[in-house]
Specification:
Blueprint: H1 2-8, H2 13-35, H3 43-53, H4 56-73, H5 84-103, H6 113-116, H7 121-138, H8 142-159, H9 172-176, H10 189-206, H11 212-235, H12 241-260, H13 270-275, H14 277-289, H15 295-298, H16 305-337, H17 342-346
Helix pairs in contact: 2-4, 2-12, 2-14, 2-16, 4-7, 4-10, 5-7, 7-8, 7-10, 8-10, 11-12, 14-16
Length: 347
């Protein structure tokens, strides 16, 4: 059991690579969108770029759900994963994500509070994982959380059209922001939470074993099944956009596992980037979109395509550098607060 627990703490390389793919997509997409001139926002190239950007959030959400399974629900984690202290630690982390999500949209005045109480990707991740964590705490059997994830995956996608236009007045507006885009939310639970819960289910099917070679073929099978679902829905004249995005993310994950599934470490600095995606996200959003100092507000959309691409590369490099810097600071802080070993202390 000790050996298996030690193995479970190792990072899954193909999942880190999926995070890196999503991080690059996020940085370049937001940076170009912040400065590109309006006259260049048309045509086939721009349409293709917008289409590719649509896979960024599903990839992040899917990776978050997959990682939750690996760290919380996977067999062989041992009793330590269910210790109350670890439950509280994870709940605090998910609560921090929700708080950070709201902090990024602080209203400049009380009159605009409803316009800024929107749900972004951090709230979507935080609320979804907090719900699963509470289920895991109240019902220790992993099967309960996995069954709930399967039900929620279908529910988030299926119920999204039914609540698309719900926009109540008053305090209920806060809750409506979690179920649709009508109030300005960017990533409400309906349908975006479905990608996270699908990640949990995928982890349960593909990564329940510690043999990485098995992950690759299971992911390929799941990817093929997802495309069969897309084809069946298309023949039934049902909108396939959301399921198609999930199928694409599954395909990317399976290809990454097929190419790098046997690796046990990603290497520096890529492993750092994969760990510090939250810091990278936070930094670049504040630089680009925060009022009044965000680039989009004080500089504006005045660059052509090549200038926007050059600016995007600058944002990518600067944001990744901030991730490395934060990793260095936190590691130094942990080293200073780490208790001395008995042999060292005796000296």
């Amino acid at each position: 059991m000790a050996e298996r627990t030690a193995v479970s703490r190792k990072r899954v390389v193909y999942l880190d690579l999926l995070r890196l793919f999503a991080t690059f997509q996020m940085l370049q997409g937001h940076a170009i969108d912040a400065v590109l001139q309006p006259q260049f926002r048309s045509g086939s190239v721009h349409a293709w770029w917008v289409h590719v950007r649509g896979y960024t959030a599903p990839a992040f959400l899917f990776a978050a759900g997959f990682a939750f399974y690996l760290t919380t629900l996977r067999p062989g984690l041992g009793a330590q994963a269910d210790a109350p202290a670890n439950h509280w630690r994870r709940l605090r982390r998910f609560g921090m994500l929700i708080a950070l999500g709201y902090m990024m949209h602080l209203p400049p005045s009380l009159e605009q509070v409803w316009d800024y109480a929107i749900v972004d990707v951090l709230q979507c991740i935080g609320v979804s994982l907090m719900a699963l964590e509470l289920l895991r705490w109240w019902f220790p059997a992993s099967s309960v959380a996995l069954a709930a994830s399967a039900i929620l995956t279908v529910s988030c996608f299926a119920l999204a059209p039914l609540f698309a236009d719900w926009l109540p007045l008053g305090p209920w507006r806060i809750f409506s922001n979690y179920v649709n885009h009508a109030g300005g939310s960017l990533f409400p639970l309906l349908p975006h939470g479905g990608y996270l819960f699908a990640g949990v289910c995928t982890g349960a099917v593909a990564a329940s074993t510690y043999e990485l070679a098995c992950h690759r073929w299971r992911l390929l099978v799941l990817s093929g099944c997802s495309w069969l679902v897309v084809g069946t829905m298309a023949m039934a004249h049902i909108d396939t956009m959301r399921i198609e995005r999930l199928a694409v993310v599954l395909s990317i994950t399976s290809l990454l596992a097929l190419a790098w599934g046997n690796r046990t470490a990603l290497g520096y600095p890529w492993s750092t980037f994969a760990r510090q995606t939250l810091v990278i996200y936070w930094v670049h959003v504040w630089v680009l979109y925060a009022k009044p100092w965000g680039v989009q507000y004080w500089y504006g959309r005045i660059l052509g395509p090549w200038g926007a691409i050059a600016f995007a590369l600058l944002v990518v490099v600067a944001s990744l550098a901030c991730g490395l810097f934060w990793e260095k600071i936190t590691r130094r802080s942990q080293t200073r607060t780490q208790p001395l070993e008995p042999e060292t202390a005796s000296r």
